[in-house]
Amino acid sequence: MSFRVIEDVAYRTKEGVKAPDPVAYEQKIYQRGLEYERPPFTFQSLKWEAQAEERMAAESKGYVVGNAGTGETARKNREAFAKWSIVPSRLNKTSELPNLSTQVKRISEQRLPFPIAIAPVGVQRIFNPDGEVASAKAAAREGVPYIMSTASSTSIEDVAKANGDGVRWYQLYWPSNEHNEITASLLSRAKKAGFSALFVTLDTYILGWRPSDMDNGYNPFLRSDNIGVAIGFADPVFRAQFKSKHGVEIEEKIHDAAAEWTQTVFPGFSHSWEDIKFLKEHWDGPIVLKGIQTIADAQKCVELGLQGIVVSNHGGRQVDGGVSSLGVLPRIVDAVGGKIDIFFDSGIRCGADIAKALALGAQGCLIGRPYVYGLALGGQEGVSHVLKSLLGDLELTLHLAGIQSASPEHLNRSVLIREDEL
Ligand SMILES: Cc1cc2nc3c(=O)[nH]c(=O)nc-3n(C[C@H](O)[C@H](O)[C@H](O)COP(=O)(O)O)c2cc1C
Ligand SMILES: O=C(O)C(=O)c1ccccc1
C-alpha cells in the first residue's frame, strides 16, 4: 500500500516564512512504514532517472536524458561536485534544524522559504499529460518559485492559474529584433499573469547537437501535436501577424504556424548586449540572464544594471566539451558577488550538491532534470516528492555538518575543502 505525497505536507514557520517541513515528511514516512505503508516513489535521488525512463516513450526519454555531443560537459558538471567536500564541525550546540530560508534581494522582496527554484523546462506534456500544470501546482504547494519556459506546452495564463499564489518567474526565449512586437507581447502577458521576474536564456538561440534526439528523429516542435508552441498559438500579436500574412487562422495551417513560431523563438542567431535595452524598456521588474559562464559576461550584467545571473551551461545540452558549471562558479562569485544576485544550475542531483553551490557563493539553485523525472514518475505528486526529498536531504546535511542555516553567514567556503588538496 502506498500513500499520497501531496496530502502529507506538514508546515512550519520560521522568521515569518511559512513553508513545508521536509524533515517532518521523513518522520511520517517511518511512522507509516510501521503500518506497512510505503512511499510511492524512491528516495534514492540517483534512481529517479532510471525509474522515470521506464515510464517514458523513447523520444521523451531521449529528450530529457540527452546532452550535447558525447555528453562530456554533462559528465563534468557532475564530477565537479565531487571535487569539493563538506567538512563537518562538532559540538555547535544547535537547538533547531537549520533555517533554509533565503534572501535573493534583487529578485524578490519577500524572503523565500528555500534556496531553490524550479528551472525552466519546455514541452513538459511529453513527460506527463498534465505537464506544466502539474509542476506549477507542485511548486506552489512546496513553496518553491516556478520558472516558466517560453517553450512550455501550456499557455502563460494557464500556468499562472495552476501556480495560484505561488512565486513565479518567466523565462524568455528571445525572438530576434524583427519580432520585437512579439517579445513585447510575451512580456506584457507574463507581467499581467503575475510573473514577477524575467529570466532570459542566452545559450539556446538554436538547439545544440543532440545525438539522442537525432537517433529518434525527434524534435518536439515539429510533431503534429504542436506540443512546444502553446504560448505562441495563444499570443494575440503572433496570431494577428500570421493571419495578415497567410489570410487564415493558425488552426487552418497548423504546421506552417508551428514552424513559424519555432523560427521566431529560436531564431538561430544571438542577440547583442545593446539589445538588452529593449528588454529593460519593456519589462518593469528584475531581469536575470541565464547561461552565464565567464567573468567578463557576468561583469557586463553588473555594468548594465541587471539584477541577476544564472551560472549555467544548460545541463551540458548545448556545448559539448564545455567547462563544468560548478567549476566556473567560484570565479564568477569572486568577480561579481554582492553586486548582482547569482543563481546556479547544471548537475544538481542531491541536497549536498545544493549545499556546495550555495557555499561557493550562489544565492539560489535551479533544479532541472530531477523534477522532470518526478513529473514523469507521478505528475504533481512526483514533482512534490522530488522537491521535498531534495530539501529534506539538504536540511539534514547542513544540520549534521554543524551548519546552522543556508544563509552565507553560516554556509560559505569555510565549510568546504577541495579533495585534491588533501
Ligand atoms: C528537457 C529539458 C528542457 C529544458 N528546457 C529549457 C527551457 O525551455 N528553457 C531554459 O532556459 N532551459 C531549459 N532547460 C535547461 C534547464 O533550465 C537547466 O538549465 C538544466 O536542466 C540544468 O541542468 P540539470 O538538469 O542537468 O541539472 C531544459 C532542460 C531540460 C533537461
Ligand atoms: O531542450 C532544451 O534544453 C531546451 O532548452 C528546450 C528548448 C525548446 C523546447 C524544449 C526544451
From TrEMBL:
Glyoxylate binds at residues 63, 173, 210, 314, 317. Its cofactor is FMN. One of its GO terms (molecular function) is oxidoreductase activity. Residues 37-419 form the FMN hydroxy acid dehydrogenase domain. CDD domains: LMO_FMN. The active site is at residue 314. Keywords: Flavoprotein, FMN, Oxidoreductase. FMN binds at residues 120-122, 149, 171, 201, 290, 312, 345-349, 368-369. InterPro entries: Aldolase_TIM, Alpha-hydoxy_acid_DH_FMN, FMN-dep_DH, FMN_HAD, FMN_hydac_DH_AS, LMO_FMN. Belongs to the FMN-dependent alpha-hydroxy acid dehydrogenase family. This is FMN hydroxy acid dehydrogenase domain-containing protein.
